[in-house]
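Worked problem 6 (solution included).
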Amino acid sequence: MVSVIIPVYNGEQTIRECLDALYNQLYPTDQYEIIVVDDASQDETIAIVKQYSNVRLIRQKRNGPASARNLGARNAKFKILLFTDADCIPQANWIKEMISPFDDLSVVGVKGRYTNKQNEPTSRFIQREYEEKYSRMSVQTDIDFIDTYSAAYRRDIFFRFGGFDESFPTACAEDIEFSFRLAQAGMRMVFNPKAIVLHHFETSLWGYLKKKIKNGYWRFYVIRRFPRKLVADSHTPQIIKIQLMFFFLFLFSLVMAPFSKLASGLFYVSFPGYTICHLRSFIEIFQRDRSLIWMAPLFFFLRSTGLTLGLLGGLLVFLLSRVTGKKKYHPD
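Solution. The predicted structure is:
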């Protein structure tokens, strides 16, 4: 028996599809409960949720998704906790597939996957990014990275390790931090690609860039806690880290070229290196969705720019906090 927990904030546009999908699972309805934790929504979210008689609605003051998930877990009745997001549509066999790995008593956490049916180039490219990560994870017997859009944990393990860190104020890295905490303690987590939720991704280039900046910013603080994950984790393709290294050297060479011949020379190393590192990605995009090939250089540039700006922003805010003593914009 399982508890499905959904944090929501101003989710009137999506929560109905999510709940409808959970009501139509290929799983006995008396074997799972649905808990929605509202994080002080100001739209019609609460009114919509109240239309579902079998959904437990819990409300809290605005405190972020990590707090909402923890609150839902504390109120859960059953031994397996499933998490998804209010803008996700779990497919009909989602619950069944999410809990099936727990037949192995060594498994404490399970990760599912995204799928997407949008036609916009940006959304299709984001799905390609995820597919690259899923390919990496599908060949690993154990993983160290579970995203809460499709996540499951044994309840006792979840609370033994303190749940999600509520000092992360936004939905971005609290699930990564928790995964790394479990992995560091030797807990076993697995990836099940058959546990699928449908999701609507960003459709604009500006939205994509902002998302990458946000990812980079909060990832900085996770890496501070788990520096070994900078070398490798089960989710992030190694080539992306090499791309970012060349991109940073490229930016450095552009800024410092007027002042240093050495920096100017870096351009002739970093730019070709950055380009070569994307050849495999170009080939995969051409094979799977060749209409994206013409926009791929722009997406790669935006990804590198966003992640680099986010990481540097996280570093800057951290250093400023050390000077001022204020920690308002980071969780440490």
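Discussion: Strands lie at 2-8, 32-38, 55-59, 80-84, 88-90, 107-115, 150-154, 188-199.
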